[in-house]
Amino acid sequence: MEVTTRLTWNEERSLQKLLGNVSLTLLYKSTVHGCSTEDADQRCTDQGSILIMIYLSDAIFGVFMLGNYPKLNNSGKPNSSFCFSLTEKNNIIETSFLKVNFVPKISGKEPVIFSLDSDTFSIVPDKSTHNIQFNLKEKLRVANSSRATYLECEIFRVEGIMVDPSYIPRIMRVTPHRNKLLSELRAYKPHADMVSKIRILLLGPVGSGKSSFFNSVKSIFQGHVTRQAIVGSDSTSITEQYRTYSVKDGKYGTFLPFVLCDSMGLDETEGEGLCMDDIPHILRGHVPDRYQFNPHKPITPKHPNFITSPSLKDRIHCVAYVLDINSINNLSSKMVAKLKQVHKEVLNCGLAHVALLTKVSNCNEVLQDSFLNMNTSMTSQSQIESMAVTTNLTWWQKKILQNHFGEKRLSLLYKASVHTFSRHHLLGRCSNQGPTITVIYGDNCVTGVYVQESYQEQEEISSVIIFALKETKILEYKIRSYDSLLFGSQFMSRNDDFCINLHNQKLSIPSDVRKKLRLPQDHISIQECEVFRCEDLLDERNIKKIIELRNCLLSDLKAYKPYGDLIQEIRILLLGPTGAGKSSFFNSVKSIYQGYVTHQALVGTDTAGISQKYRTYSIREKKDGNALPFILCDSMGLGENEGGLCMNDIVNILKGHIPDRYENNSLKPITSNHPNYIDSPLLKDRIHCVAFVFDANSIEHLSEEMVAKIKRTRREVIKCGVMHIALLTHVDTMNLITKGDLIDIYRCMPVKIKLNQVNRKLGFALSDILVVSNYTSEWSLDPVKDVLILSALRQMLWTADDFLEDLPLQ
After folding, report:
1. What is the DSSP letter of 254?
2. Across all residues in the chain, what is the average pLDDT?
3. Cβ neighbours of residue 757 under 8 Å, at least 6 residues apart?
4. Which residues of 176-209 are buried (b: 16+ CB within 10 A; e: fewer)?
5. What's the pLDDT tens digit per position in 546-560?
6. Which has the closest alpha carbon to 145: 55, 54, 58, 53?
7. How far apart are CA 564 and CA 567, in angstroms?
8. How many angstroms from the chain centroid is the CA of residue 37?
9. How far is CA 289 from the centre of its chain?
């Protein structure tokens, strides 16, 4: 029997986010491990920071302690902690919390936690009762009707928390501080009402994050990630126009009192990047929105759109120098000289200025918990020690174990070097935990035991699997009828040939088993021993939440309306190499809405590509037959050299000149003389979002010619002003990736590596790369795949909204 938390998927994610994107490992569950102080004590001491959850009949109450769980009969020191309550309304988790410095104390059968401000919380495990004083209950908005008896007590180890006394105050300050800043920005009015909006110019080297800063600001006020300003990495600046971006407070809200002005990046090479002579004109308000920069030729008063007599509202009021914190020390002498020259010009104009350091989260010397107090402290990683008990397994070793024993999540319960090399301590922490894996680290080997049944005192275990971890695979040997596996002084089989002696730190394995597992022939010296609880990645709780999320996404997409009601349907163009999965993505989306796997768009593995025609696919809901508010446009694949979709055809597709069912010709693009050429396309005929589709397994194998073609295509998309994303398909066929990984796919190490490859090789920003698993060989739908596909589709619609909002005012 697996041991799982009572928390819903939504509640667990909310707690992880509240504590700073941490991981939670369940150590103790009162209904499984016993309702006594001793039961909790033997499983939870020396585990690092702890989260205690008390489930009442009408509320959930919790206590987080930055430090070890208090030992029995020991009065702890004042502990940096907070208590909180969770309630769920309309599928949204609401949290009320209160910072207190607890003096934890466990005495006899009653653990009592006293706070320094006299608010007291206590539980009596033997009776499953609790006592929360009225004033504490009131502050946490826990109903006074709560009965004294609780339903369950669970204790978690919190991984990812740094041992810093200021960590908790900062976490608790984040939401109130953020809300206060939002209110101040919404209420801001420029001095003396001289202008209605402040203009802030973003200046800095190519790739420093100017456009990303605007996107980030807009994302905060929109409530989701936005992509109005094109971002990415290339040898030259992606931004080639001068843009003045206003920001709305929500999709249909009012404009905020500031304008962010994005510019071409500064380049150290002469004749590249923003022309230095353009900067004074920008500062003084002479340069109009959407002016196309020319690195060799600055704007002059003769330019037709030159603002001859700019008013105060047209001028720049503040300059933000944007610099990548990781590149400061690597700036060339030419770039430093150019920045100083710009700074001198800004001073001559009498403008206020600030320096904005970006990509701080990627800097090894700065931790996220310093963000709220960045102006007074910079915390070095080397100065912080994590208290959480962590495994010696590498990510790859852990993943191989998870996959080999059936897509399991491994939760570390016992670590000998922390909890002592002792049968008694191992038993106390690991009995009644369901299936377990015990990992033994020898001098030159990693071996262990998998037990499918819970460890139980004085009970025989039907079988165990002895295994050896060999780089990318596992060798195993099954032993049946195992007596007293965790009891006595050692692990012991009936013939005494196999035993793990923790006290003497020796592992003995029969010679035939050692030979089969390719292990050393002598006794193995135990350097470390760890025991993990095994839980199904796709348990009932996760599947239930995934189905809820799927239904929520379906509802959101059905209710979606394009920005400003400018059009009825969003057109999304699928572009990419032959065989990348463009047609399969359309089929997958349609399958979800039809309720079964469909194959309207032809797919296959022909090297020349199956799709020869340009197709525009509408999708109707099966229930009511109504058309959904988007059209997926499938195109011929990009081929090597001159093969595949013609570059001129791509531009014509983007501008809306090419009709449905047009037969593509790699050597001859469509012309205005074609009988079906759309001479004057309307906004509804144009492409509103481009999805570059790539096979995740082929990124590293793309030829130089294909990479160049993709970059050239991307430049054409940018010139047409169309926003775009990258879509990685076939992620489920990547090495070590299983169906269970798709639940949290962006945290998987192979996927992270793949995203970085796309970023470095093709220049797409990491935030613009989405991951899906298409329906290619299945005959039935899978809610896990559906969530990835629908989430990607929603991101595309939001990206199309950015395109519509960015259109020039008519």
Report:
1. P
2. 85
3. 699, 700
4. eeeeeeeeebeeeeeeeeebebbbbbbbbbbbbb
5. 998 999 999 999 999
6. 58
7. 8
8. 38
9. 34
- In single-letter form, the type of residue at position 724 comes to H
Q: Is the distance from CB of 770 to CB of 795 less than 8 angstroms? A: yes
Both structure tokens of 464: 């165990």
- Sheet of 291-292, strand order: 291-292, 241-248, 255-262, 198-203, 318-324, 352-358
CB 482 within 8 A of CB 464: yes
User: How far, in Å, CA of 525 to CA of 442, rounded?
Assistant: 6
Q: Band of the pLDDT at 482, cuts 50, 70, 90?
A: low
What does the DSSP 8-state code read for residue 780? S
Q: Which distant-in-sequence residues (6+ apart) come within 8 Å of 174 by Cβ?
A: 372
Looking at the DSSP assignment, which residues form a beta bridge with residue 245? 260
Task: Give the three-class secondary structure for 650.
Answer: helix
- Per-residue burial over 2-32, b = 16 or more CB atoms within 10 Å of its CB, e = otherwise: ebbbbbbbbbbebbeebbbebbbbbbbbbeb
The tens digit of pLDDT for each residue in 290-338 reads 999 999 999 999 999 999 999 999 999 999 999 999 899 899 999 999 9
Q: Are 155 and 125 in contact (CB under 8 A)?
A: no
Alpha carbon distance 798, 674 (integer Å): 34
Structure tokens at 413: 């319960």
How much is the pTM? 0.85
Looking up tokens 């807009």 gives 218
